[in-house]
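question for whoever is on the cluster today: can someone run the full assembly for these? three chains, 748 residues total. i dont have access anymore since they changed the login thing
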Amino acid sequence: MGDAAIAEGLPIVAAGVGVVRRGTRVLDAIDVTIEPRARTFILGANGAGKSTLLRVLHGLLAPDAGTVTWGSGRSRPAGQAMVFQRPVLLRRSAAGNVRHALALRGVRGSEAQRRTDDALSRVGLGEIGARPARVLSGGEQQRVALARAWALEPEVLFLDEPTASLDPPATRAVESIVEAIHARGTTIVMTTHSLGQAKRLADTVIFLSAGKVTECTDASQFFASPHSSEGRIFVEGERL
Amino acid sequence: MKTWIRNVMLALGMLGAVGAGAAEPFIVVASTTSTEQSGLFAHLLPAFEKDTGIAVHVVAVGTGQALDIGRRGDADVVFVHDKAAELKWLAEGNGVQRYPVMYNDFVLIGPKADPAHVAGGKDIAAALKKIAQAKPAFVSRADKSGTYSAELRLWRDAGVDIAKAKGSWYRETGSGMGPALNTAAALDAYLLADRGTWLNFHNRGNLEIAVEGDKRLFNQYGVMLVNPAKHPQVKKDLGQKFIDWLVSPRGQQVIASYTIDGEQLFFPNAGSDS
Amino acid sequence: MDTISQSFALALSMVAHLDARLTQIVGLSVTVSLASTLCSAVIGLPLGAAMAIARFPGRDPVIVTLNAAMGLPPVVVGLLVYLLLSRAGPLGAFGLLFTPTAMVIAQTILIVPIVAALTRQVVEDAWAEYREQLRSLDASWWQSSTTLLWDTRWSLLTVLLAGFGRAASEVGAVIIVGGNIDGVTRVMTTAIALETSKGDLALALGLGIVLLTLVMALNVGAHLTRQWARARFG
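^ ran it for u. tokens below:
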């Protein structure tokens, strides 16, 4: 990726975004900006709208109100990837899953093989690339998903509570991979339940409460003294 | 993905070649169930193929359907046993010429218990009159077959208005000879059958021959070439070879030599005016 | 009961002696039904996948029609194909009537709805699981279809087997378009029909037992394959 010039699909600007589901406003008049290179964390209680906002920013969900701009364009650019809470892997080998994603982008042959091998070894799965992906453990599967994202060399990586169902060692493994991906130049946008995880990894925090943005600040600022009462409750007790 | 599509096409192509019998010349003959189910074709056709190298694909259906197949041009030759229907078919321009080939006979089949008291008789008209009075179960094919046409003719000759009896003791199955025999065996009913199918039929139950030998039970077979003027794709030369062979001394002898349990089924009479 | 025990004995002896006519009839049955299964796979698998993934106006009526078409009466299909392929019909010039090709055509028409409808169900379930990830990866409609079809390949094997079973068991269509010609278009089911009509019930049932055994063996094979695949691929 390199420290090259302004990335195509960044910054991501959501203006007045609203999403309505079954009569409820899941997201309400959201104005956020995802800056290049930052690690932005979207925090909030269950049902606050974190996953929905993530999907809108990734372009998976079209908002019912407002607009999303990626860089200078209104249509979703190619250089993005997403890792979901439950790893979504095909009935192929781990390496096969990575190669498949590359093939969808038109990368095949020896170049694809090289990037696959590199990605799998980066996530610590270099030895088991040939095993069927779906028989691996939860933590290993999530690492395959991350290897897939790694190989794609995306500008922006979205992660939706990627460690929610993993044990602490697997969680640490995932976090260090995310850090490595970020170190290579990818912008990270992530949601989490875990205060500790957010403290460890976040640069910027967007705090959602009942579909509205109640805070959007520097991470250290947020954890030190959150403005809103919901934010305070979250930081102090993770209870909302 | 592309390779296996190509392989499928190849397989289909091969199947097509197999289907077309690309190997040897053949004709399609539309004939009746009685000629096939009596076993005559199994005896006759190998001899023809040996003599001429031509294979014969027989589609065995009822006379009505066989004539319809010929009318559509889906067969090269038609070989059935209903002179009136054949002549009408010719008159409509569907064929070239009718050649009589052979005859067999119909027999009246009935249950051993013989509720109508007709067993052992030699007069079919008298027997049918008795049946119409006694009203035992009677199975009729009621399809457009040669056997059915003959049956209707015989009811007429017996002076019976059979249309009135439909649905009561007179059961119309609308089926071929074999299924009708199955039904009759199950119902212990009377029915009219061709001797050939009867002799080759194994599910007799309590049935046996009740009446035979009456001249009116005579069943004439004729063969006709489908009209190549109407259907240019008809294999007229091969078809004519088949017809010529059937009426030749050799063909006639092969027909005569077909027996079941020592009994001759079909009597060659090519060249007669039947 | 007598006929039934006779039939088992007949079936066993026919198979044991590899009766030449039996072999020819079984071979033709398998070839015709396999060819129609393959043809219906070529048409039905992409059709089913498209039905599962694509959203277009009129999708619901198409689904309902496909489901209804699963119950097409074979004899009606046979009659329609007969009228199409007859020399007197629109496709008569090809001279396909009374050939195995005609039988393949008729059977394909019969089983495409089954293959398509069942494929749609299988792919729809997989699509629910993979939809977001595939969209995230920028997969096109075509790429998504092929990915899902390959991913569900073991379930699709069962779908194709269902199609094959329907094709191999039907008699109404192939007897009309094939003509049940001895040595050319006589398959297991039409042979059974013929022997039954000749009153040779033991032989008919014997052939039936052979057919049932064949279809059963295929189903067992497919079941075991699926078990293996599930353990292996997850």
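summary bc i know u wont read the tokens: Confidence is low (pLDDT under 50) at residues 1-6 of chain A. Chain A has one domain: 12-237.
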